[in-house]
Write a structure and sequence with these properties.
Order of helices and strands: HEEEEEEEEEEEE
Strand content: over 45%
Number of strands: 12
Distance between the termini: 45 Å
Length: 187
């Protein structure tokens, strides 16, 4: 049975990598082609005005779902946010909100009925979440800049609640087994 689960997990990871590569190609290839195109004939040799400074608001989100009744709600505002989400199993739920700039989330939920609420406001914050098992719950709220949270839940019914507000805080929560509870607040 473990061999089958291992091959299924490998197949899911490969499918997720392919989905991310396709997303990146779909977003960047048209832009690259446009950037390399020659200027129109009527502008050839003309003196062009200096370029305007424009705020970059590009966000990236890759979401792969395998199984049944998985739900993900992603909201990204500000500029250059990144989210990479993988859900496999039944009834996993993830809610993500990122505001301001350069925040990053990678999350993987495998198993059933796992829940995650991830919220980042500020800049250059990082959340890395892995949930594997049944009924794990993770809530992470980060306000400020350069904060990082690594949450790993392997087992069943584990709970992690992380709150960080300020600059440069870091937390690692690893839960292996069943029914573990972690609460971390840093201000």
């Amino acid at each position: 049975m473990t061999s089958r689960n291992g091959s299924a997990a490998r197949a899911l990871r490969q499918a997720h990598r392919r989905a991310r590569a396709l997303l990146a190609a779909a977003l960047w290839l048209p832009l690259l082609a446009w950037a390399q195109a020659a200027p129109p004939a009527d502008l050839a040799g003309a003196e062009l005005p200096p370029p305007e400074i424009v705020a970059v608001t590009t966000h990236t989100a890759a979401l792969s779902q395998f199984g049944n009744d998985n739900a993900a709600d992603l909201a990204q505002g500000g500029s250059r946010q990144f989210a990479d989400i993988l859900q496999s199993g039944i009834g996993n739920q993830l809610t993500l909100s990122q505001l301001d700039a350069l925040n990053r989330v990678t999350a993987s939920q495998s198993g059933d009925l796992n829940q995650a609420l991830l919220d980042q406001i500020g800049s250059e914050n990082l959340i890395s979440l892995t949930q594997s098992g049944i009924g794990n719950v993770a809530n992470v709220v980060q306000n400020g800049a350069l904060n990082s949270a690594l949450i790993e839940q392997i087992g069943n019914r584990n709970s992690a609640d992380v709150q960080q507000a300020g600059v440069g805080f870091s937390v690692v929560v690893q839960q292996f087994g069943d029914g573990n509870i972690a609460r971390v607040s840093q201000f």
